[in-house]
Each structure stands twice: as C-alpha cells, then as structure tokens.
Write a structure and sequence with these properties.
With 449 residues, the chain is of the alpha+beta class. Helix 8 packs antiparallel against helix 9, helix 11 packs antiparallel against helix 12 and helix 12 runs antiparallel to helix 13. The protein contains 13 helices and four strands. Strand 1 and strand 2 form a beta hairpin. The longest helix has 67 residues. The relative contact order is 0.13. The N terminus is likely disordered. The chain folds into two domains: 43 residues; 289 residues, Up-down Bundle (Outer membrane efflux proteins (OEP)). The protein is elongated. A four-stranded antiparallel β-sheet has the order 1-2-3-4, covered by helices on one side.
Length: 449
Amino acid sequence: MGQGSIKAAALCAALTLQAGCDEALTDNPVVAKLSAGMDASVAPKADGTQVAALRQTPTKHDQTLNAESIVLQNLLARQSVLPSGSAYDRVSTAVLAANARAAETELRAARLRAAAASKNWLPTIGPSISLNSLGDLISQIVVDAVLFDNGRKKGERAFAKADVEVAAVALAEDTNDRVATALGLYLDAAQAREAAGLHRTTLDEMAHFEWVMGERVKGGVSDMSDLNVIRAKLSEIRAAAAAAQEAEATALAELNAMAIAPLDDVRGLQTLAVRGTEAQPLSVIRAEAEKSRSIAQARIDRASQLPGVGAQATIGENGGAGITVGGPGLGLGTPARLRAIEAAQEAAGRQVAQANEDANRALRRLEGDVAAAARQAGEARTLTAGAKTNLDLFQAQYQGGQRQVMDVVGVYETFAARQEAELALKYEALRLQIELARVQGVLADGDQI
C-alpha cells in the first residue's frame, strides 16, 4: 500500500467515524432538540408539548434496562394515591405540566451513557497520523482490543446502569417533592380562606355586641370600659381576617407560579387513603441504587490496581499487530489499597441498612402523627360542638335578662377559639397524609414520571 493510499484510507476512516457520530447525534431526540434551539424546547406550553417532547419513545437498550433493573421496575409500578379527578389531582397535573424537569434531562443523559457503556467491550478504531524525523507523513489506522482487564469494562457497564437508577430515583423524588409542595400551598390557601370566613363571622357577631353595648352605654346602663374592650377585640379580629386574606393571596400566587394555568377556582379537600406500607420509601431505593453504583466503582478501582492484557493492530506503513500487557506497577501498598476497596463495598451495604432504619423510623413517626392528628381533630370537633351549645345557652339566658353582654362575649370568644383550633388540626392531618405519601413516593404514577 502506497503512502497516498494510506492517507486516503486514514482520511476515509476518519470521515466515516465523524459521519457516524453526527448521524447518532442527529438521531438522538434530545440532541436534535438542543440543536433546534434551547428556548423553543424549554419554554412551558399549555398544550403539554414540552412534556411530550421530553418523554421520547424508549430505545431497545432502555427497554432492556427497564426489564433488568429491579429499581426501575419498582419505580414504574408505583401508583398515585391522589383520587383521580379530585382537586388534589388537578393541582398535581397543573404543576407537573409546568415542571422544567431538570432531573429528567439528567436521567436521559445517564441512559445515553449506559447505552454507550454497553458497547465498551468492542474494539476501538481510530486514525494515527505522525511525522517522522525525515519530515514524512505517516498515516495508520489503529485497532485496540481489550483481552483481559480484571473486570474493568464489566464494572463500567454496571456503574452506568446504576447511574441510571440513581438518576431515576432523583427524578421520582423531584416529582413527588414538587407535588407535595404544590399541595402544601393549596392547603395553605384553603386554610387561610376558611379562617378568613370564620373571622368574618366572628366580626359580624362582635359588631352586634358592640352596637348593643354602645346603646347600653348611651342609656347609662353599662360602663364605657366594657365598650372599649369589645372595640379592642374587634380590632384584633379585623387584623386576623386581613392576615388570613393576605396569606391566601400569597399561597395562591406562589401556587399559580408553579402551575401551567391559574388554580384560583380549584376547591375541595380529600382524605388520602395512605398507609406506612404503601410502597418502599424513595430514600431506601436511592440507597440501594447508590450501593450498586459504589460496588461498581469499587470493581473499577480494583481493576485499575492490577495489570491487564490487550491487543493492538496497525494498518498502514510499518503496520503490524501485537499483545500488550500494562497497568500500574505493583508495590507494597497494593494489598492495602485492595482491602480499602473491599471495605468501601461493605460500607455501601451498611448505608442501605441505615437508610432502611431511618425510613422505617420516619414512617412509624408519620403514621403516629397522622393518627394523632385525626384523633385530635375529632376531639376538637366535639369541643367546638360543646362550646356552641354553651353559647346558645348563654344567649338564651341573655335574652331572658339572666346574663350580661360581656358574659356572652366571653363565651363567644371561647367558641371562636375552638373553631380555629379545629380548623388548624384538620389541615394538620391533611398535611401529614401528604408528607407520608411523599416519603413513599406515591404522589404521582411511576409510569407517568
């Protein structure tokens, strides 16, 4: 083969490799979207185009990875505990449609890295062009193949697979956290709206008592100090009502900033049928995925400490083939480094056990808190009903001339306080249910994530 033919062959090989890379990048939907322009692909659209563009049809490697990975199967099988068509479901749908889904981009990148790593056992080919001492151009095509690498390539494939699992868990956590945040804002707005209604009712009643006391003061029956006390209470109630309205507006504004469409008109509360055994907590799933990744990294590190065997062939001027043995030199510290790598694998397993223990403690605590809040809310309803009965009795006695105005005012204050306590406990129970579902990652369907 002449030098001109060698150069032509090397140039053709380089152009072929470049064309193959360009074609692979063009076929990749994510890269094609980035080439078309980031602004068009990232901007949220009301028709859900962004979500459809990001959620591409899985490749053959993606389907194989989903079928082989227990972690991915666990995530895909999760079902949302939000009732379909409910107010919670409408809020969840609106905020997920507007989600930037940065974690999804990382998952897609991890899947592409895993697809690339799955072919790392194949030989590599590339051109080699150099000048000799006489100034002549020497072109060669070099083919490298790994014959024995102590399991490094296998470890790289396992690491890439575990990296996909970690990214998938991160996406599930991100999605569930977003839904939980949105539902928390929705409950904040609902609680503030209901509290404002209670304050307005109390304000109307107190305004009536103020009028009665004002008439009694004019007639010289009551003292001016009692009227001043009622007016001070009215000022406090007005301030509380204004604060509740501001809290509602703030929560709705923040919620609408997260959603693809305004949610001001969404109404309704739901009791979630969620238990502590609904699904394995996402923190445990993440620990298991990180354990697999740590073990794979340990295998790579171990292989890097030992010599390997490879084959290399060159095509062109002075071409040939041969077997190469290389790697780091073995020293007195090599056994200690290998033992340290083994210890890292053991530490990864213990981290899973610790994550499982922490998650179980959190679930048991949340289960107890949910049950306690529900019980306390029931007790608060009973106390509110008792306070209302007592208020009705005092009002009847007042109309019969047996009670003073200030007596009725004091009893009404007690009734209003019971209502506020009942309201706070009711929403606390709802928030704890959402938190229990968030920890287990069941605020959204796994296959939809």
